Amino acid sequence: MAGPHDGGPGGALRRGRFTFGPLDEGEALVEPILGSWEANVDHALARSPIDVCSSRGEDAVVLGNLGVVRVLKVNAGSRDVRVREGDLCLLLPFGRLDRFGYAELAYAYDAPHTIGLLTERSKMDARLLLPIPDGTAYSLPQWATYGRYFTAWDNWQKAYGCWRSQVADDDPANHLVFGWGGGVAFAELMLAKRAGFRVAMTAGSDERVAFLRENGITAVDRRRFPALSLPTREERTDRDRHRLRRTSVGDFLDVVGELSDGHGVAVFVDNIGEPLYDVTLRALAREGVVTTCGWKAGMRLSHLRGAECISRHIHVNTHVWRLQDSPGIRDFQEAEGWMAPKGSDVIYDFDRVPELADDYANGRIGSYFPMYRVNPL
Ligand SMILES: NC(=O)c1ccc[n+]([C@@H]2O[C@H](COP(=O)([O-])OP(=O)(O)OC[C@H]3O[C@@H](n4cnc5c(N)ncnc54)[C@H](OP(=O)(O)O)[C@@H]3O)[C@@H](O)[C@H]2O)c1
């Protein structure tokens, strides 16, 4: 990755030679096969909200922290290494862990001296490699979506637990779980559906509306609410914009009312943040939970604490998942078929990664699961 540049995020990417030293004890040499394109790569290319190069104190960083790799060589040394040459593995994106196993720094993002998957060969700590189950029923592109699924699994456990702490025994079928767009929200709603909730989600294209319906999620076409986002700084004095927003918000809240028998949303999966936050809170039922692991459109939020307390709203914030939960989440995916639907991904060849970066940043990708192919299987 290099900069500065004038164009879109793709313009920040250059093909270049990158060298690394011999394998240290406990490290594996790997060949990336498929990498998942995620918002964190987009953030890194935009150098916002943080500039990962300067925060790591490095001139060049190889991004790409979620994807499927093939192990080429392992230097186990005296370590208890569980992967073998030839294994196909998921890269777990943990840089620095806290004392409970949650990620403080993300691998191939803000954790120094970590090498990601946007390279033909890479090396990494073998403890970060989780083998794909032998004889799996799922394809490699399906597995390559695991980042959004593992994140959703962890966020859902916490959100559901919090909701249950206040609504101990009511049937979930009486309650609505709602999500703003995105692959994490999609995966999370599929868990909510399994738990028996009504599930609905916004989508911004015909393709996504159809996809949600095919998967049993009520699709709410957000083009019906064109002024739903908070007016920008420039629009603040535009009275027409405010009037349009009131209409869009009213229309949206009507839809939520219809889907929830007038009660509002029990669990709101909000990875969008700032421009929709007031609407998210207004849509929430009493004892509702707003749950997030993302801030796609802005992370500086404010709310009325009194109103949130009186409504008994619980706010859940999570990030990644717990390293030691990884095998269990993988096994749940394999056993329960909670997995990106076959063919729901879109794959760009390695040479087209700059195009992928620009398409993703400009919302031109219909799939929730964009990925890039580095090496053939
Ligand atoms: N903390 C973690 O561990 C973690 C892990 C994964 C992801 N995340 C974060 O979670 C967020 C979502 O990631 P994702 O991979 O699920 O989705 P994503 O690929 O980033 O897509 C988000 C989707 O949200 C919708 N959207 C964007 N702006 C919107 C707006 N202003 N109003 C309403 N909808 C809007 C768009 O879908 P439509 O046009 O179809 O509505 C967009 O495709 C990102 O910020 C990401 O960084 C965090």
Question: Which characteristics define this entry?
Answer:
six-stranded parallel beta sheet; alpha/beta; 11 helices; seven-stranded mixed beta sheet; single chain
How far apart the termini lie comes to 25 Å
Which shape, going by the Cα principal axes? globular
Classify the helix fraction into a percent range. Answer: 25-40%
What binds here, in terms of ligands, is: NADP nicotinamide-adenine-dinucleotide phosphate
* Strand fraction: 15-25%
SS-based structural class?
Answer: alpha/beta
SS field, number of helical segments: 11
SSE order in H/E notation? EHHEEEEEEHHEHEHEHEHEHEHEHE
In total, the number of strands is 15
Largest β-sheet summary? 7 strands, mixed
Radius of gyration: 21 Å
Which consecutive residue ranges, at least 5 long each, have pLDDT under 50? none
- Report the mean per-residue pLDDT as an integer: 95
